[in-house]
Design brief:
2 domains
Length: 252
């Protein structure tokens, strides 16, 4: 009698354990399914956002990065960088979902004064041998209306990375006119932007004293066209200018 009860209780215990294990396995499976569903949903949303981004090319024939800085409190000294490029992933249906990167060759600085430019490149000022590039990478774009807003990003200058905010305006979004030879009616976006940063905060502390010939802040003035070159022919002017020395380009 006791033996039979022992067997029944043993079987009941095992059945209870099996039921408990099955319940735990089901709950674990549910959790796993939910977890992977959330991941998949996040990946889908991310992929959808990325799918809307189109790589645009900087038209080097219509691009300008200018700077100016106070000179003894008189008129500002102005100049530009002659060599630069960038990467641009543009969502023209939602510009806030875009990514902008500029890379500048510091040695291309030009203030229309050979002696001054050589000094600016020297070790005691810009030290281009050590800090050869300036880089800006956007981290956030905020539109205030359909064609203007701010680009917030990281500016790496003289080895120091600090936030930089650019105020920008989209001048136009349109296809090139059909009468322009070798422009191929590609889609283009015109942009103008301004900004300011503290040179001393970035390590450019040369001549940093009251009455210095160099002001503390550098103002930026940027103009550029971006072109959708994804289906452009190999001899397209805005897509190839400054990149293909084998092609002949008109003087315009």
């Amino acid at each position: 009698m006791h033996y039979e009860i022992f067997i029944v209780h043993g079987i009941s215990g095992k059945l209870h354990d099996l039921q408990l294990n099955e319940t735990m396995e089901i709950e674990t499976l549910k959790t796993t399914v939910i977890f992977h569903t959330l991941i998949a949903a996040g990946m889908f949303a991310s992929n959808a956002a990325n799918a809307a981004q189109i790589p645009y090319t900087l038209d080097l024939g219509h691009a300008y990065i200018g700077w100016e800085i106070d000179h003894f409190g008189y008129s500002n000294t102005v100049g530009q960088f002659r060599q630069f490029d960038g990467d641009f992933l543009i969502d023209d249906t939602d510009f806030e979902n875009s990514l902008v990167t500029f890379t500048i060759d510091v040695s291309s600085i030009d203030s229309n004064h050979v002696g001054r430019d050589n000094h600016l490149r020297a070790e005691d000022i810009l030290n281009v041998e050590t800090f050869s590039t300036i880089k800006f990478v956007s981290t956030n774009i905020n539109m205030s209306d359909e064609k203007s807003g701010t680009i917030i990003g990281d500016l790496t200058f003289m080895g120091t990375t600090e936030p930089l905010e650019l105020t920008f305006n989209i001048t136009d979004i349109a296809k090139y006119a059909a009468f322009l030879p070798r422009y191929d009616e590609l889609s283009a976006i015109g942009v103008e932007a301004t900004g300011r940063f503290d040179r001393v905060a970035h390590g450019l502390d040369a001549l940093n004293f009251p009455g210095s010939p160099l002001g503390q802040f550098i103002d930026l003035n940027i103009h550029f066209d971006l072109v959708d070159c994804n289906e452009a022919p190999a001899n397209n002017i805005p897509c190839q200018y400054g990149r293909n020395d084998d092609l002949e380009f008109p003087n315009e």
